[in-house]
Amino acid sequence: MNPVEIAKELIKIDTRNPPGYTTKAVEFLESLFSSYNTKIYAKEEGKENLVVEISKGKPTVMLTSHLDTVPCDEKLLNPVVINGKLYGRGSCDAKGCVASICYSALNLRDVDVGLKLAFTCDEEVGGFNGLGFVFPREKADVVLIGEPTGSNCIGVLQAFVVSVDIYIKGESGHTASQEAEYGAIYRASEYIVNRVRAFRDLRGNFKEYKEFFEKMGYEFVIKSWHSVFNPAIIQGGIKRNVVAPNCVIKADIRFAPWISIDEIKNLLEDECVERIDVVGFLKSYGVKFDEVELSKDLKVLKILRDIIKNMGKTPKAVFSLGVGDTRHVRKYGVPAFYIGPGGEGLHSDNEFVYISELYDAAKVYTEFINALESF
């Protein structure tokens, strides 16, 4: 099967999360790799992860991507090809990546390195039942994670993520006699507008980090912003004819590691803020900012750079405010990077992957495995 056919079959299989059941997708992939040794790991019933052993040797590389997708209407489970683009839920994120990995592995010549594939569950909700459960049991020396970066783009760094509850105080009273702008809801609205703009204006000092990649022959790309403030949920108020005495903003904050925690704290402070509770924290993972030895990262990055250049493309090192599965690998000191077929509209009704990218990403995977023989 070519990668388009594989991706189409995977799109037809419902793995929308919630609930994110992967049983049928795993069964399809097991049949695809029926002549190879396979293992199934499951932390929860219905959320299976599949590991396929392609070859044995040293070093060991793992190619991995996730099977679950975000929710959608039923119609998006019907794959459609138009003008060189494959549409459907998961076409871009990340069943197209799974298809490219499969195509590469099934057409690989005999190699002396170890190669295993891992197709996992629950990445869209943190990956703890997926790669976070599999990797400690199936260690590898280097990992490439299929995400829709584009076949010439390497995801090298992801953001800090902080979840906060921000309590806003106001002056209550009857609608007929109290100014609404003294109330907590109005103050919260002003606070939100100001913080959204302020966070998007944050830059920090990333010059040295940018130059590091440029000296290696990469173009350094910041995807979207350096930081973001998302007021995801607002709760508060008493009743319709009472100016709200208090409310709480439940916010998702993400920022690059070259922006300091103190800068973030200072931006959050305001006279209308009663208190701020941190309810979740995820550290940044990536090159020069975690437990992986730089020398190990450099070896992998140089191989990928040369492969991409030989394909006539410009290698790009990408920082993203999004987070994924690299943390489940890099915390063990193992180099892990994102790379996969590019598309557009992930998580939207117009999600698609470029068919040419399915083949180009597969070529990158294949050339990377071949290059590891001299790693």
What does this structure look like?
With 375 residues, this protein is α/β, with parallel strands linked by helices. It folds into two domains: 3-158 and 284-374, Aminopeptidase (3-Layer(aba) Sandwich), CATH 3.40.630.10; 165-206 and 231-282, 2-Layer Sandwich (Alpha-Beta Plaits). The protein has ten helices and 20 strands. The protein has helices spanning 3-12, 23-32, 95-106, 131-134, 184-201, 207-216, 261-268, 294-310, 327-330, 355-371; strands at 37-42, 48-55, 60-66, 80-82, 85-87, 114-120, 142-145, 153-158, 160-169, 173-174, 219-223, 227-236, 242-243, 246-255, 273-282, 285-286, 316-320, 336-338, 343-344, 352-354. The chain has a six-stranded mixed sheet with strand order 1-2-6-3-7-18. The chain has a four-stranded antiparallel sheet with strand order 4-5-20-19. A hairpin with a 2-residue loop joins strand 4 (80-82) and strand 5. Helix 1 (3-12) crosses helix 3 (95-106), helix 3 packs across helix 10 (355-371) and helix 8 (294-310) crosses helix 10.
- Characterize the biggest β-sheet: 6 strands, mixed
Overall geometry: globular
Q: Strand content of the residues, in percent?
A: 25-35%
Structural class estimated from helices and strands: alpha/beta
CATH superfamily of the largest domain: Zn peptidases
Low-confidence parts, pLDDT < 50 over ≥5 residues? none
* H/E topology pattern: HHEEEEEHEHEEEEHHEEEEHEEHEHEEEH
The total beta strand count reads 20
Question: Can you name the CATH architecture of the largest domain?
Answer: 3-Layer(aba) Sandwich
SSE arrangement:
Layout: H1 3-12, H2 23-32, E1 37-42, E2 48-55, E3 60-66, E4 80-82, E5 85-87, H3 95-106, E6 114-120, H4 131-134, E7 142-145, E8 153-158, E9 160-169, E10 173-174, H5 184-201, H6 207-216, E11 219-223, E12 227-236, E13 242-243, E14 246-255, H7 261-268, E15 273-282, E16 285-286, H8 294-310, E17 316-320, H9 327-330, E18 336-338, E19 343-344, E20 352-354, H10 355-371
Parallel strand pairs: 3-6, 3-7, 7-18, 8-17, 11-17
Antiparallel strand pairs: 1-2, 2-6, 4-5, 5-20, 8-16, 9-14, 9-15, 10-13, 12-14, 19-20
